[in-house]
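Lab notebook, bench 4. The sequencing result for the construct came back, and we need a structural model before the next group meeting so we can plan mutations. Quick request posted to the team channel:

Model the 3D structure of this chain.
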Amino acid sequence: MTGRLSGKTALITGGAAGLGLGMAREFLSQGARVVLVDLCAPPDDMLARADVMALMCDATDEAALDAAFTRAEAEMGPLDIVVVNAGISQNSPTLELEFARWRKVMAVNLDAAFLTAQAAGNRMVPRGRGAILFTSSVYGVVAGPERLGYVVSKHGISAMAKALALEWSPHGLRVNAIAPGYVRTALLDDLIERGRVDAEKLLAHTPMRRFVSIEEVAKTAAFIVSDDASATTGLIATADGGWTANGYL
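Done. Here's the predicted structure in token form:
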């Protein structure tokens, strides 16, 4: 299959569902081989593909993650692209936020991101090439109330992408982040249903007056990791329908 990612191998953490799965499907459509690293199994149609490998792994486990990278490269070839996507949300008033929940958000959103990026860098830097893409968030660009752990961790992701771009770009790597807005996923539907998110206010504040789709984020991600974006590094690319340009409501 030809496409802008033809011949490339991509590893995606948190790739079995949501945005990670959406990016995997888009990368495949553009010719890439894909390794999905997740605690859950991807859909059966992905498991049936010869150009997909699924590895069950906790991205906060350094040894397990390193083993997953090693197996991925042994069976699918050297990694050209790594998407640091595994993450969880945190949506509650700060006075009700238990420390254990805070630590879990930091472990999954920041610690796992560091470990994933380091595992990628250990392999890519010696080869002098590679593209790393972090999944940040609009809350890695601006702030909002009652989601302190998420805001802090996603700002950390954005900072990590910039810092590693400065450090690794001279070695031939490109490091960027994508900052999706409110994407219509099962997670957003759950937050709306539980009253944690006011859909009408969000849409009124979004210039495009609609939620972003998984496919739109995935297409943006595919461009950023492709050779067509060969001069792009240190970018935090929003895909939010103009939400951050309008500030926080």
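The chain has a mean pLDDT of 95.
Will bring this to the meeting.
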